[in-house]
Amino acid sequence: MLIMSKVKVILLTGRTIDQGVSKEHGKLSKEYQEKVAICEVDSSDLKNLTVIKGLNIKVITRFGSVVVKAIKSSRGSHPGIAYMPYGLWANIVVDPHTHGIGMPSFKGIPAELEAAPSENVTPIPVLLEETFRKKPQ
Amino acid sequence: MTLVKNVTCPICGTLCDDLEVEVEENSIVDVRNACAIGEAKFLNFTDPKHRNLKPLVRKGGELTEVSLDEAVERSAQILAHAQYPILYGWSCTSCQAIRVGIELAEEVGGVIDNTSTVCHGPSILSIQSVGIPTCTLGQVRHRADLVVYWASDPYSAHPRHIERYTSFSDGRFQESEWEHYVTRLRGVLGKKRLSRASARISMREVSIPPIADPKLPPEFETEKRKLIVVDVRKTRSAEIADFFIQVEPNRDFELLQALRLLVKDEELEVDKVAGVPVDLLEEFADILISCNFGIFFFGVGLTMSSGKHRNIDAAIALTKDLNYRTKFAIMPMRGHFNVAGANIVSTWQTGYPFAVDFSHGYPRYNPGETSAVDILQRDESDASLIIASDPVSNFPRNAAQNLVKNPMITIDPVVSPTTMMADVVIPSAFVGIEVEGTAYRMDCVPLPMKKIVEPPKICLPDEEILRRILLQVRQIRQTGGKA
């Protein structure tokens, strides 16, 4: 039986070179989803999640949750820090509060990670229809 | 085949202007000197799978192909009848188009905001309150012997920044550190290979290198140009750096203030600040003071985490303090290729750099109240015009939901989640590839963007599309709502 443990992390969102390149291949491309619908997690946190790299995880904050692919963070060791590239998936879970200056908090958000091996990453057209209840192009 | 030289790259605020593009029968067949992102753009921008090539208007819930005139007329109707429209985007278009956009915002009594509102908006607020000791990238290239990237990962967001303007550039008074870096990299890769091989033999896990460098490397004693990265995690840029300092998330403000004390020869009565040992901080402060010309490049890691504009206040104050001891400058790493231009044109036209509200008949500026995300979160706007931007992807979900529920016009060369959810889609030409214009580099130096190939006939320049909408809006308003 698979135990679904949760791991608490601080979530950062930002740019990656792969996100920048794949965006130029089109935001509906398979490459874009593969490079952007991901979460880089420290190897020790992946172990605690009982998840191996490449499987899906659910990123949960108090603002929402989203299923993305878990990627083992390749640089340094930083348990407790998870990183998602900017994009539609990340913006479901970021902190929208602007603290009176117009800028939401896209970095440093308390989050929980949970293994979601049986759930799929939602492609952009489906995510748009679910989120906005309007038919996309 | 034609070779177009000195092409300015329409990707990031570094605005590399040394690209060479090969053109054959109005199509780009090769590009040289570009980074991976620039190359991907030049070689893929015509891909019909993600290019807007038809004007569309939402009818009966579905986007339907219409003539360009009908799309422009529908856009004008939406804007002319809106009470409080938002005109958002502007960072990936030319200064010429932005100027017309401001005229349109004034005409319809709306709010014009650019992407700096969710990028370096807090930096601008800070600069307005405390000023900024800065310089041009040319000065950095030729003179800076200490470069500090703070909360910024140029390798990912500004891939040629280090090569063109900082450690790997050959300046008049500073040499490139590229060869030293390659030598060091070979050493690191060799160590990694050995570690992996010994792990295989002994059946244990590969050891992960320590998070931050525990002490300064010996080369810091030398006169060479130095590169330091301060960030919350080890990025690719941190790997390139001579030294990496890891700060705990949301605690940059403390680290900056601690450095200010050390630069003023005060003592810290704690062992660590923001996860960084004070001994190391003292050495860092010494390096900052002892350089001849230092520069802080700061990224959105400071503006988007706890403290926001206060982090920038502290970084600028540190730079100011350092200028009592040596020569130091500071510069924000601007993201989109003309986000600096959007701020400059907006300031030149209205007096304010972003979040400008014309609803009272004169420009008002109060980020937090007149900024796009706040207006959307309060659900106050009733229509929008989005140009060269993708806020449906990049705004928090509740703001994007309120944007999408009201009539939305998009002017964009590419298909994006925003154009997919729009009510009017107007295809446009790519600035810097299919249409010329002006853009401002991150150090506020204006550069010309070239026209390299002809756009498809249906794709007009942003400036012309906006002029057509503005003309129709004026006609509608003059005739009391009847076009």
Describe this structure in words.
The complex is a heterodimer of chains A (137) and B (483). Chain A has 137 residues and is α/β, with parallel strands linked by helices. Chain A has four helices and six strands, in the order E-H-H-E-H-E-E-E-E-H. Chain A has helices at 17-23, 30-36, 43-48, 124-132; strands spanning 6-14, 38-41, 56-61, 64-72, 81-85, 107-115. Chain A has a six-stranded mixed sheet. Chain B has 483 residues and is of the alpha/beta class. Chain B has 19 helices and 21 strands. Chain B has a nine-stranded mixed sheet with strand order 5-4-19-18-17-6-7-15-16. A five-stranded parallel sheet of chain B has the order 10-9-8-13-14. The model of chain B has no long low-confidence stretch (mean pLDDT 94). Classes of the chains: A alpha/beta (137), B alpha/beta (483). At the A-B interface, strand 1, helix 1 and helix 4 of A face helix 1, helix 4, helix 6, helix 9 and helix 12 of B.
Characterize the largest beta sheet of chain A: strand count, sense, and whether it forms a barrel.
6 strands, mixed
Distance between the termini of chain B: 47 Å
Question: In what range is the share of β-strand residues of chain B?
Answer: 15-25%
Strand order in space, largest sheet of chain A? 2-4-3-6-1-5
Architecture of the largest domain in chain B, CATH level 2?
3-Layer(aba) Sandwich
The CATH topology of chain A corresponds to: Barwin-like endoglucanases
> Can you identify the CATH superfamily of the largest domain in chain B?
Dimethylsulfoxide Reductase, domain 2
What value does the average pLDDT of chain A take? 91
CATH-level-2 architecture of chain A: Beta Barrel
SSE class of chain B: alpha/beta
Question: Which strand order do you get reading across the main beta sheet of chain B?
Answer: 5-4-19-18-17-6-7-15-16
In DSSP terms (H or I, runs of 4 or more residues), the helix count of chain B works out at 19
Helix content of chain A: 10-25%
Written as H for each helix and E for each strand, in order along the chain, the element string of chain A is EHHEHEEEEH
In quaternary terms, these chains amount to: heterodimer
Q: What's the CATH class label of chain A?
A: Mainly Beta
* CATH secondary-structure class of the largest domain in chain B: Alpha Beta
The total number of structural domains of chain B is 2
Measured on Cα atoms, how large is the radius of gyration of chain A? Answer: 15 Å
Q: The biggest beta sheet of chain B, please?
A: 9 strands, mixed
